[in-house]
Amino acid sequence: MSARILVAGLGNVLMGDDGIGPYCAQELSASYQFPANVEVADLGTPGLDLALYMSKADRVLVIDALRGVPRGTIAIYDMAAIVAGVSGSRVETHSLALAESVLTARLASERPREVRLIGLAGSRFDHGTTLSPDVRERIPALVEHALEELARWNVVWGCRRSRPPAHPWWKGQRDAEGGRS
Questions:
Q1: Is the peptide bond before 35 cis (omega within 30 degrees of 0)?
Q2: Which of 23, 53, 99, 113 is the most buried (most CB within 10 A)?
Q3: Which residues, 6+ apart, have CB-to-CB distance to 88 below 8 Å?
Q4: Which helix (H) or strand (E) holds 145?
Q5: How far apart are alpha carbons 83 and 12 in whole angstroms?
Q6: How far is it, in rounded angstroms, from Cα 82 to Cα 61?
Q7: Region class of 17: left (phi > 0), else alpha (psi between -120 and 50), else beta
Q8: Span 38-64, mean pLDDT?
Q9: Of the candidates 160, 154, 158, 148, which has an alpha carbon nearest to the alpha carbon of residue 5?
Q10: DSSP readout, 92-109?
Q11: pLDDT-wise least confident of 19-23, 43-47, 94-98, 148-152
């Protein structure tokens, strides 16, 4: 039986670059096909339900915005670093909720066995549904890092033949800059 893998995009799509995780999850879903054991999900701002999602997966790849590092930086953290963030400094925007969810899920079900966080440092976390230009420019690199991590877990993915445009639900609304997305 194949390991159950969750790719979780975390973030608030109404707070600028905090929407990096959901945006990347949407891009992965629109552009790539994954086997049945892989779920790609926009989980929004983490709450109590994050531990429930995690407890059903053997491996979890979290994609989220980073703060406190130079904008545009992509960093990868393992489960030990994520859990250490409970008492350490916050780098990832949802670090406390993520660390607590990992610990709660492991306590309840001994799953997930492995968690990786891929983060991209944003620059604008104010109201609005538009990612900053420097973040938009780095999304393809973030997607590539996510695919590399999945390949390390022996996930075989393919490109969609007819790629629908990545069109997150929040696009098409007036954004903070007053234009149409």
A1: no
A2: 23
A3: none
A4: helix 133-152
A5: 22
A6: 12
A7: alpha
A8: 93
A9: 154
A10: BTTHHHHHHHHHHHHHHH
A11: 94-98
Amino acid at 17: D
Give the whole-angstrom CA distance, residue 34 versus residue 9. Answer: 16
Domain regions of the chain by residue span: 5-159
Read off the tokens for 92. Answer: 């990832």
Q: What CA–CA distance (Å, rounded) separates 3 from 171?
A: 33
Sheet (strand 74-78) strand order: 38-44, 5-10, 59-66, 114-121, 74-78
The residue to which tokens 């409970």 are assigned: 86
Has residue 95 got a pLDDT over 70? no
Rounded mean pLDDT of 68-75?
88
| Residue at 134: amino acid letter | D
Please give the helix or strand (H or E) that residue 141 lies within, else none. Answer: helix 133-152
What CATH fold (topology level) applies to the domain 5-159? Answer: Rossmann fold (3.40.50)
